[in-house]
Structures are given as structure tokens and as C-alpha cells.
Amino acid sequence: MAEVETEVKGRSIVVTINRPQVHNCVDAETAQLLFEAVQSFRRDRDLDVLVLTGAGDVSFCSGADLKHVESLIARPGADESGPMGISRVTDLDKPTIAAVNGYCLAGGLELACWCDFRVASHNASFGNPARRWGVPLIDGGTQRLPRIVGLGNALYLIETGIVIDAAGALRMGLVQEVVPDGQALPRALELAEAIVEYPRVSVKNDRRAVYEGLSPPLAEGIRLEAEVHRSSLADPEMAERLRQYVAGQRPLLPHPPACP
């Protein structure tokens, strides 16, 4: 089976990261297939909404495949489209929804933030545990996350590596709806079906006005992120931490407090 699967549902398309055996982490092939799926959606005049999800109930996407991170970064076109495949695509003019089930971590969180909004199952969890390995957010996380949840919440997630549950993500504004386990994709498609019934020009123009009205422009911020992290990718300490990761060493992360 393909590492990325697509299925047309009326005027919507479901793009599924299909590597459940490795928690839907993204390698170079997966990144390329994600890029191709988004480009196909862009060109298809009969499709109005893209829903991004992960195969199975355990993971939406656990991030980059850290055992093959060099090939991910070296993938042809990665500088333009982003290592994870689509994060630097900022000129798409149609709505996108993330249907998040299970783990949504590191680069997976960045992919979810690439979408316009997020529907999460009750078992979803969100965070940046790759902080332990020194792996930077270079797929839009430093730019999109503060725009979505605010500065303090973004830095809390980015700097601590903490992983929060769906309820915490809802309070933070990271997700817009939390639904029972297994219902994130059906609910996202339900919302997509509503969107496609609206006059498409006004939806697209409202969306454009929102994104272009943010300051500084997202594309400029994405370029800044890529530039400042060149030294992060060359850091010997990150290379050593990745060797520890491959060896199975897992430093502990802080845990969020229990809800009162």
C-alpha cells in the first residue's frame, strides 16, 4: 500500500499518511507523496476541501522519521516545500482540515498546524517531544503555532517538549472540536461537506483575507524559520542526540498538571 493514500469524497479529498507501523512518521518518500497530493488537489477544479489525517487510531503523525532524517532534509524540493513535504506551501487557495487521531507530535503537529483548523479525537495528544533530540521546528511550527495559540502557549509547547491531551489542546485553541475516538475523520468530512455547499469564491476570499491580513506575512516567517535553523541542523549535539534516539534512549519529558 502507498505511504500516502488519497480518496475523493464528493468535492473533498482525504489525504491519509499511511505508515501506522511507525506511528505515521514521515520519511522522504512520504513527504514527496504528500506534496504531490496537495499539488493534485490544487489543480483539481472539482475539489474544494482537503482533509489531512493519519491511518489507524493510534497516530495522526508522530513527526519526521528520525532514523532517516538526513534523507528527509535532502529530498529534492525540500527547501521549497518543506522537509515534511507541504509545510512551506503557503499559497494554497482552498480550505484544509486536520482530522487528528492519537499522537500529533513534532513535525506532525506542524502538519496539523498547516491546516486551517483541527478536529481531534478524544485520544489525541499534541506536543514537541523531539525537543529532547535538539531537532528544531523547521516545518512552520515557530510561525504557525504562535498564530494559532498565542505566544505564551506556543513557547510553552516549543520549549518544554510537553505533550498535552485533546482537552488541553481545546482550551488552548489548538483544536476547534474534540469528538469521540474514531470520529475525527467523519466529523471533519461533515464540516467539509458544509463548506463545499457555500459559494466558493467568498470562502476562498475570506480565507485569503485572513492569511494575508496576518503580520508579518506567513511566507516571510517561514523563510526566517528556515534560515535561523541552518545552524541547528549542523549542530553536533543534535547529531549525538539522534544517535541516542536510535539507540533507544528516551530522556523524560515534563508532564502537564492534572485538570482541576
Mean pLDDT: 94
| CATH class placement | Alpha Beta
- Total number of β-strand segments? 10
Which homologous superfamily in CATH is the superfamily?
Answer: 2-enoyl-CoA Hydratase, Chain A, domain 1
Secondary-structure class: alpha/beta
Largest sheet: 6 strands, mixed
Number of helices: 12
C-alpha geometry: globular
Q: What is the end-to-end distance? A: 45 Å
pLDDT below 50 for ≥5 consecutive residues: which ranges? none
Q: How many discrete structural domains?
A: 1
Question: What percentage of amino acids are in beta strands?
Answer: 15-25%
Q: Main sheet: which strands, in order across?
A: 1-2-3-5-7-10
> What is the CATH T-level topology?
2-enoyl-CoA Hydratase, Chain A, domain 1
The share of residues in helices is 40-55%
- Radius of gyration (CA) equals 17 Å
Q: SSE order in H/E notation?
A: EEHEEHHEEHEEHHEHEHHHHH
Task: Give the oligomeric state of the chains in this entry, treating copies of one chain as homo and distinct chains as hetero.
Answer: single chain
